[in-house]
Amino acid sequence: MKRRNFIKFASISVLLFSTNSTFAKNISANTLAILDEVYGVLFPKTSTMPSAKQFGAVKFLVQNINHKTFDDEDKTLVLDGTKDFSNSFPEFLSLSKRKKQELLNDIVNSNDYAQSWISRLIYYGIEAMLGDPIYGGNTNQIGWNSINHKIGYPRPKLTYGQKV
Amino acid sequence: MTYDVCVIGSGAGAGPIIYELSKKGLKVCVLEKGEAFKRDDFSKDEIALRRDIYTPSLKDEYHTIEEFMDNKWEKFPTYETGWNFWNGSLLGGSSNFMSGFFYRLKPKDFKLYSTYGKIKGSNIVDWPISYEDMEKYYDKTEKIVGVSGEIIQYKHAEPRSSKNFPFKALDEHPITKLIDKSSKELGFSIVKTPRAIISNSLKHRSACYYSNYCGSYGCSSGAKGSSREALIIPALETSNVTIVPKAFVIKLNTSKDKKIKSAVYLTKEGTKKKIEAKLFVLAAQAVETSRLLLNSKDENFPNGVANNSGNVGKNFLSSSGGILSGKFDEKSMDLKELLTPGLFVNRAVKDFYFTKDFKGGMLEMVFEHANAIRRSNMLKWEGSNLLIGKALQDKLHNTLAKTKTLNLEIFADWTPNDNSFISVDEKYKDKYGIPVANIRIGTLKHDLEVSNFLAKKGVKLLEQMGAKDIHNDVSALPSQNLQAGGCRFGNDSKTSVLNKYCQAHEVSNLFVTDGSFMPTGGSVPYTFTIYANSFRVADFIKENYKSIISS
Prior knowledge:
- The complex is a heterodimer of chains A (164) and B (551).
- Chain A has 164 residues and is mainly α.
- Chain A has one domain.
- Chain A has nine helices and no strands.
- Chain A has helices at residues 2-19, 21-26, 29-42, 52-55, 57-64, 72-88, 97-107, 112-130, 142-146.
- Chain A starts with a helix and ends in an 18-residue tail after the last helix.
- Chain B has two domains: 1-148 and 221-318 and 419-441 and 483-551, FAD/NAD(P)-binding domain (3-Layer(bba) Sandwich); 165-193 and 320-413 and 444-477, no CATH class.
- In chain B, 25% of the residues lie in helices and 22% in strands.
- Chain B is built from 13 helices and 21 strands.
- Chain B is globular and about 70 Å long.
- Chain B starts with a strand and ends with a helix.
- The mean pLDDT of chain B is 97.
């Protein structure tokens, strides 16, 4: 169990420190590990769509959550919601894949708080899947390709509409 | 330095003034609240768009929306609701982001009171000018800003002095064949949409390249006729124009002779500065224009500049209507054709613009915007439940990769009334301490009835086309990007703010040229009429500049 958590911690830490060191000060490795697993349930790989890991859901969050344009209330909901989820279900990381799916299916529409938290996670998951790869998600345009999306040109040279 | 002209704002109401007066040789200073982005700064970045990077943060600068709830009017700050009434704080204003469907008003739109009489509870009046007065300026706008399209004769078509649009129609999406066939079967006229998007290059502007990301995005070829591309860039060539970006005008100072002496503005850092000019043109978009006048109180104008009559802010207009939508898939038409990106639908239903008994409106057909993030986020819901896992992924794929949604936007007149206005309230201030604009959005039942009348026609058309999942979302709420009124023009200084040349009755060196002047707005987007009227006012200023500043 400890080893399992350690592996998750280690793999996400590499990602974390390679992309945004400021973020590391604000978020625990446990929160990241939980987000990684929750996203795996929200966006599983299917015959037509990529998994959250493939399109980089957590990497996207790491890279963008501290930007000034990221909604403050959303940031709080994403991070505090994850902590509260962890406190409510401390065994989550050790559950089997099927049990994780069952747990999230049970809670998603069970109360407003859980629904709001997951709703925000899905929204930023969608940004990661279908936003420009310049933001750290949509790895190799895997999200766009999965829905045969015709992108617009020019693509951004800089993030958040900064002047060229 | 004292400029000949100071223009506050740089969107559709400001562009023709800047263009015409700088070419006349007048020294023009433009105070723009936002940044001066250039064409190369724009891209098709949906995340940037969703972060509202071209509008102020609502936490810093907001509006209050006043709605009638539980038998009383209640104000809701927009930082609580996210309902954003800023539409583009940047050089060129919101004209950078328009979809650009450019319909003229029709002759009877200028005399709604004479045509249909007064609706109970309304403040409908005729305009002090006629369609004939405006026609040459519509024509001028088509040529200078650039409008593409094909002239279609139908029952309510307005007279024109030019036989054709100056630019040929943009390429059409294959679904137009299905629309046209179904329209014919129902006996509807086929009306093709004119657009302020050019199909051939014009000077520094390249033709449309069908980017698939048009409305809500800045144009990367210059084809879209934004005030920045079509008017300000050419005006800068005169060397008579000074642009001051990031200049938020908070007050107009007046002198004892009741003229504007200077405009006070804040820089992004909050430093107060001042510009002096002989003549001022205000075009900050209707809500902010009324706000600035109402906030400019002094001993000459204790209720705000040009507001000794108490008319500033009254009779705000937006557009009533809402939206219909229907889904199309491979059973409707060849999937590859259906999913063709970028091409325009360019169709409208305008047979019901006027009826025998009441003013109707129109239905504009447009595909749901390409924005994959926005569309996907709506798909996560199944009623009030969230979808997750395979169910979510399958829905995303089956909808986005295999269907397309056609929207019919309903445009009905927003009937002016006593409960539709702009005001300011000392209780609600922005981060600079300036009272924000309050927008009371009262509508008459009549407007909703007209929208429902139009919606029935639209649903018929969608059914005839074989659309699935037809949604009817008729609404009396305003469209935040369609703003007019608040400083209506008229011949009587007791009941209007501006005279027929959009010159303030009470302040001879102040003109207002955004949509604020409109007493009624028609059943079309306002931008074309704002451009045309601004060219008209520019002509008046050019011909009378010396007498205006010396009066």
